[in-house]
Amino acid sequence: MNPLSQRLEAALLDAAADGRRLAPVSFTVDYGASADAAHAEIEARVDRSTKSLVFASAEARLADGRTAATASGVYRVTLS
Q: Which CATH class is domain 3-77?
């Protein structure tokens, strides 16, 4: 996994967790602008949450506004 996808996955999990223990179900990354994305700003949000699943998405933007990548993740809420 490359550093940008690792940062996106961490941001998705952080946004989705909200104090809950989660297990990943799905993680997808779509790459956009080809550039050094080491300094891309990442914004993650929860799109939908049910009793057992959390759906989240994130976007990595370069300083010039271009999208470096987008990501989505689905997480299962675990009891332990």
A: alpha beta
Instruction: Give the whole-angstrom CA distance, residue 71 versus residue 57.
Output: 6
- Based on C-alpha coordinates, what's the Rg of the chain? 13
Return d(Cα 69, Cα 40) in angstroms, integer.
Answer: 9
The domain locations on the chain are 3-77
User: What element of type H or E holds 46?
Assistant: strand 41-49
pLDDT per position as a tens digit, 20-52: 999 999 999 999 877 677 789 999 999 999 999
